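The methods section describes the discrete structure representation at length, but only in general terms. An entry of this sort, consisting of the sequence and the corresponding backbone structure tokens, reads as follows:
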Amino acid sequence: QGGCLCGVTRSHIRIAYNAACPTVAHHHAVWVARFSPCGLMIASAEDANAMGLSGDILMSSVRTGTPTALVRGIYGRTKHLSFSEDGEKLASGGTDGRIRIFNTVTGVLIRWMLAADPIMNCPVSGVQFSPTNGHFLLSTTTGGNQPPVAREWNVTNGTTIQRFVGDTIAR
């Protein structure tokens, strides 16, 4: 049946799906792109932050390149995206220290969680949904001499299940 290949250029994502090669266009440079688990959708985030603007996250059909949902006005640079195993949710994390969970059909924000102390200027360095328990694990980098922090979150209520600082569990 063929496969998918995603190539990111300065402001476009080129998707090769068999013989058809749709293009998903952004207004600013694309920072990150991820395929959904079923491979039929791609989420991409642009970086408008360098110009003092807020960025967008675009969810598009892999087959046609047609946008299916658009999230506008993300403050800071979105550096990481992760789909839930069922493809119904998208998590984003970036330089503002927040994790946002979106509905992939509507683009509506379901919830956001503060992953790091904003005073410490700690960007989210990764988000990943768990394939088995509906939680996801993210890690944040910290400024200065702060150790790295990883948290396991309950996505349903936005609470921290476990917090790992450096190589220890901190509850």
